[in-house]
């Protein structure tokens, strides 16, 4: 089939399945579940896939699953990933299909990712005579805590994979756009805990204490100089203290204080620099006041930036420009947000991750907000984006859009 005919077919098929696509998204939005607890979600995905001809699925852990679709024609193996977990957020959208699980919400668009990939899988199963090679669908748990990708990798999901593709619905980008970057797209990210140990006592006799709150105040201010006064201005990084806890009384200076926060950078070199400065500042400032500071990081040394394969990303960008009639594909600046898709890309498999714009004309709430929502049109574009990624490596017989 000629490329133009194939493009038209794929786009028309998604449009034909639009109502089902949005219904699936609503179903999944109602049942958000936290990392490694996505039991109802996994059951839903499994029950949907079992009805699709030519597709077999299997679980590699208690939650999340992998599905395979193999053609009769030799070709590449493409893996396509959608994340499936929700967030510990109480929904305030007022949507008719709001979360039925108290304190849990799909506040990052993962419901849309799953719905788009399920419809893409259905369309591909119905047109598997047009395929070559094989497809592996990864419905991955626990992205929000940064552990699902490593679990899947340990279970061998990248075995014999030639290409890997993923996407994220992205409200900072207009619904009419798909953002592609031919290098670093998302930051390496990690979380830190700092426990400051002092000497507690009466609030009226601070001279008898080593006040961890005063130490913490000094440390918080100093941590903000790591990026602004220590990292070169042409580089990008962030250190944010997001939680402070110590004491529970008006007149008692506590024994200890705990700080929590995050650090992000677009390169491993800069990430290591941030790690080192957080450790040294904590040690030196606490020591200067007579206290002690202990720093722990959640992911070091696993933290890694999400870096697209330049060749594959260029092919994806060109292919999406040709394939998405209602959306435009363009180069996008990297973000300091993170995604554990980076764990797949660091293995060396040719991978590409894109942002599918979901911003609207009215006020948008940011990802992880209780009123976060994605536009229906963006979910349609996401399904088409998945299909056109398949077209480039596993459907087009001979075309200069082909990625290998």
TrEMBL record:
Molecular functions (GO terms): metal ion binding; N-acetyldiaminopimelate deacetylase activity
Assigned keywords, A-Z: Amino-acid biosynthesis, Diaminopimelate biosynthesis, Hydrolase, Lysine biosynthesis, Manganese, Metal-binding
Protein name: Amidohydrolase
Organism of origin: Vagococcus allomyrinae
UniProt-listed Pfam families: M20_dimer (PF07687), Peptidase_M20 (PF01546)
KW Metal-binding (keyword) present: yes
GO BP annotation list: diaminopimelate biosynthetic process; lysine biosynthetic process
Cofactor note: The Mn(2+) ion enhances activity.
Chain residues that bind Mn(2+): 108, 110, 144, 168, 368
Domain Peptidase M20 dimerisation: 192-281
Cofactor: Mn(2+)
Keyword Calcium: no
